[in-house]
User: Fold this.
Amino acid sequence: MANRIKIKGVFLITGSILIGIILITQSCSTTKVISQYDCDTFANNTVYKKTTWSYAWGLVQPKDINPRCDPRFNHLNKVVVKTNLGFAILSTVTLGIVIPQHVEWCCAPYSPPTDSLGSRP
Assistant:
C-alpha cells in the first residue's frame, strides 16, 4: 500500500513538472513575416519597434500603426510580432483583459524604376 502511494506521488510530481515545462515553453512566441528582403541586409534601414496593448479580450484593439515608410515606395518587408513570458503572465493574471504584444517592422528601401536598354527606339 505504501509503495502505491509513493508511485502515485512520483507520477503526480513528474506530471506536474512536465505540464509546467510545456506551459512555460509555449508562452514565448515569435511570428515573422518577410516579403522580399531582410532588414539586416541594408545599411541605414531602420527597424521600428512598438508594444501594442489590447484590452477586454481583444474587443478594444490598439490603434493602427503608421509604419513611416518612404511614401514613394511605401512597402513593408518584415513584420515580427513577439510575446514573452511576462506578457503571457500578465494576460493570464488579468484573465485576458490586458494582452500586450511587441511589434517590430522595417520598410523596403526605395528602388526607383529603371528602363531596359532595349526599350528606347
Observations:
- The chain is about 30% helix and 25% strand.
- The first strand starts at residue 29 and ends at 34.
- Helices lie at 2-27, 85-93.
